[in-house]
Specification:
Length: about 260
């Protein structure tokens, strides 16, 4: 097995907690501090997480469904979830992938009270879960939690704006190349000097607003140039500098 580049542990803008957080059943939850708790004293973090429960979701299991009332807010502690919407024809569009440290379900809670997207476990996931009313009261009680949620939701919106701009203004090849570079940094796993991204060609097409045929054609061309290799459920990046050049980003990067 390769070692994840990112996503195997929670983001740590505020440093590790001084003691384990506790879930509702009193079991210690060994987490590094996620962005949700940035700037919040460890004692308050433990009070907040004491009101959560933990749950594991099998691959393919729904975390919540578009149109349902928001009943809970989730903080991923491991695994990978995809956020998607269905078009009028039933076509699925993947809006984003969420990894450990990401918050799910909060957008609808603070707007329409209904989920505006669907979340599904892309890999086996574990999450801390708060009832919606409980989480809303916690956000009102702890100002830093409110600020952190505002920042996190803003980051998700900016990500969508950037990708929409790409779909509207750029050709397919740089768009797909840029998405692969993003995914490499987010969910890539180092394997024998290359980086494997565990998603299918269809998934990549849904994330870039193009077709399975187009993605397959691009990957075949890039494979012939030694830039990538691909199989049914994974794309492996062999030459990230060339891929960055195609995406319009600087060809050199300090990331390996």
């Amino acid at each position: 097995m390769g070692t994840p580049l990112m996503g195997s542990s929670l983001r740590q803008p505020g440093g590790p907690l001084s003691q384990p957080m506790m879930n509702r059943q009193g079991a210690a939850v060994a987490l590094s501090r996620p962005a949700l708790f940035d700037g919040i004293p460890p004692a308050d973090c433990n009070r907040i997480t004491a009101l959560a429960r933990t749950r594991e979701f099998a691959r393919g299991e729904m975390l919540y469904i578009e149109g349902e009332y928001v009943q809970q807010v989730l903080l991923l502690t491991s695994g990978l979830a995809k956020i998607n919407k269905l078009g009028m024809s039933g076509t699925e569009v993947i809006l984003g992938l969420r990894t450990a440290g990401d918050v799910l379900g909060a957008t609808g809670l603070f707007s329409t009270a209904k989920h505006c997207t669907t979340a599904q476990a892309f890999r086996v996931c574990r999450a801390m879960i708060w009832d919606a009313a409980t989480f809303k009261s916690l956000v009102e009680r702890y100002p830093m939690l409110h600020q952190n949620m505002h920042r996190i939701l803003g980051e998700y919106v900016l990500e969508l704006e950037e990708r929409f701009h790409e779909v509207a203004t750029e050709k397919v090849e740089p768009r797909v190349a840029r998405q692969l570079v993003r995914l490499r940094d987010k969910i890539g796993r180092q394997i024998d000097g290359a980086v494997e991204i565990g998603l299918s060609r269809e998934d990549l097409a849904q994330m870039t607003g193009t077709t399975l045929f187009t993605v397959s054609r691009l990957l075949s061309a890039w494979e012939a140039r030694g830039m990538v290799t691909s199989r049914r459920e994974a794309v492996t990046i062999c030459d990230v500098q060339s891929l960055r050049a195609l995406s319009g980003q600087p060809a050199w990067s300090g990331a390996i």
